[in-house]
Design goal:
The structure is a single chain. This protein has 509 residues and is of the alpha/beta class. The protein has 16 helices and 18 strands. The protein has four domains: 4-279, Alpha-Beta Barrel (TIM Barrel), CATH 3.20.20; 297-323, no CATH class; 327-385; 393-508, Double Stranded RNA Binding Domain, CATH 3.30.160. It is 41% helix and 20% strand. Strand 17 and strand 18 form a beta hairpin. It is globular, with a radius of gyration of 25 Å. It binds manganese (II) ion. Manganese (II) ion binds at residues 15, 172, 203, 205, 234-235.
Length: 509
């Protein structure tokens, strides 16, 4: 039987990057885009070129270097935006211009302050303008789910007539519920006379926890492109999770029997971990498909069942997503080859100098901890991956604390070839160390959140600290790991400060 292909459109690097604190630099974006190509998504949306010179450059680089998927970027339905999109993506093998405008009364009245006819004409003009550059033009009707159906259908018809090859119906504010959303898609399919000239796409947000359900019901009603993000990241509560949609289509192919996708599911685990590491957004343990508990059975009855026959309580096999096939463990004697191999398994390919630095930290850890698990390597990488942007590095740390002493810290940092040493006191050893670092760097970011977790079990486990810093309206996530939680806290703080510095030089470009 011929099945219809569902086009997987990944927006991790555009909508996903709008997650607070998840700002990436050019190298990091390129790494993710290359991994998305290995995952074999159909379309990569990698930025909003007119928003900043840094974003423009990153999109341009991805368009030049990433082969395979269609490369697209977003811009409003305005000529300068479309010019910027085209300039940034034109070097791609298969470039697509993606442009949008709101279609809901509330957006048109209060945000655009334009009447519906003007908005419709702007959309048509934008598509015609984009069409001069390339044949592949996608138009999105922002806030479609809160728009009037008649108007929605008129806009869809008009932009298709103007040449749009893909028309996206986004649930921008995450307002839709499945049955209603399915009906909306069906109405559009039935009422728009030239609908067969374009692919209908959906873009669902998760404000009500329904993004994946809404996307799947849209597929059953005629949508053939689904926009989604790795780990479900994105504005506010995030977007539909790519891995959940793909795995649902795969595992329930009995139900979704008329459709297929071309994603290489074995790359899901790697991609998910890479995005989490680079963006500094941890994956909740109970997250569907990729959370660490997704394949753990704890109830006695469930354990008994799984031991007798896996499928009694497990519908997804970890191997489907390239997840752990047996626990791997490294020791101080494992050697470079084994460590490099395990990193590759986790989706990390390092240059020689990067690897040597990583290996030194691995040995340091293996000396303290004896057994190093893949979770430990991932935690170390979370810190290491942002190293390209590293400006300050930790050379030496000594702290004093105790019930009767005044907490104090001596911190030695290195920047380029310069060494800085400062001593400070504080409310506790971490506060003291942070005060010493502030003295050196001249920053004094506000500590918004502090989280400590044990990466594995046992008293010698690595502690991973993730902190949220706020500095001049910017929110930055810093992560650090060590078997010493004070050192981990200091590394997280430095990681955050280095990201802040990297962002500043990015914005200045
Ligand atoms: Mn969105």
């Amino acid at each position: 039987m011929m099945t219809e292909k569902i086009i997987i459109f990944d927006s991790t690097l555009r909508d996903g990057e709008q997650t607070p604190g998840a700002k990436l630099n050019e190298e990091e974006k390129l790494k993710i885009a290359k991994q998305l190509a290995r995952l074999n998504v159909d379309v990569i949306e990698c930025g909003f070129p007119i928003s900043s010179p840094g974003d423009f450059k990153a999109v341009q680089r991805i368009a030049k270097e990433v082969k395979g998927p269609i490369i697209t970027a977003l811009g409003r339905a305005l000529k300068p935006d479309i010019d910027a999109v085209w300039e940034a993506i034109k070097a791609a093998e298969r470039p697509r211009i993606h442009t949008f405008l709101s279609s809901s009364p509330i957006h048109m009245q209060y945000q655009l302050r334009k009447d519906p006819e003007t908005v419709l004409n702007m959309g048509v003009e934008a598509v015609k303008y984009a069409k001069k550059y390339t044949d592949d033009v996608q138009y999105s009707l922002m806030d479609a789910t809160r728009s009037e159906l008649d108007y929605l259908c008129r806009v869809v018809e008009a932009v298709i007539a103007a040449g749009a090859t893909v028309v996206n119906i986004p649930d921008t504010v995450g307002y839709a519920v499945p049955e209603q959303f399915g009906e909306l898609i069906q109405q559009i399919m039935n009422r728009v006379p030239n609908i067969d000239k374009a692919v209908i796409s959906v873009h669902c947000h998760n404000d009500l926890g329904l993004a994946v359900a809404n996307s799947l019901v849209a597929v059953q009603n005629g949508a053939r492109q689904v926009e989604c993000n790795i780990n479900g990241i994105g504005e506010r509560a995030g977007n539909a999770a790519l891995e959940e949609i793909v795995v649902a289509l795969t595992i329930r192919s009995d139900y979704f029997q008329n459709y297929h996708h071309q994603v290489n599911t074995k790359e899901i685990y790697k991609t998910s971990r890479l995005v989490s590491s680079l963006m500094g957004i941890p994956i909740p343990v109970n997250k569907a498909v990729i959370g660490t508990n997704a394949f753990v059975h704890s109830s006695g009855i469930h354990q008994d069942g799984v031991l007798k026959h896996t499928e009694t309580y497990e519908i997804i096999n970890a191997e489907l997503i390239g997840g752990k096939a047996g626990q791997m463990m490294l020791t101080a004697r494992s050697g470079r080859h084994a460590v490099r191999h395990q990193l590759q398994e986790l989706g990390f390919t390092l240059h020689d100098t990067e690897f040597e630095e990583f290996f030194a930290r691995f040995l340091e850890l293996a000396d303290k901890k004896k057994e190093v698990y893949r979770e430990d390597l991932e935690a170390l990488m979370n810190e290491n991956m942002t190293h390209t942007a590293s400006i300050y590095s930790l050379e030496y740390l000594q702290t004093v604390s105790g019930s009767k002493s005044i907490p104090a810290a001596v911190v030695k940092l290195k920047k380029d070839d310069e060494i800085f040493v400062e001593t400070e006191t504080g409310a506790g050893p971490i506060d003291a160390a942070y005060n010493a670092i502030d003295k050196i760097t001249g920053f004094k970011p506000r500590l918004e959140k502090y989280n400590l977790r044990g990466v594995t079990e046992g008293r010698d486990a690595l502690g991973e600290v993730s902190i949220t810093l706020e500095y001049q309206d910017k929110t930055i996530i810093g992560r650090g790991t060590s078997t010493d939680i004070i050192e981990a806290s200091v590394r997280a703080y430095l990681n955050g400060i280095n990201k802040l510095l990297a962002q500043r030089s990015n914005d200045a470009r």
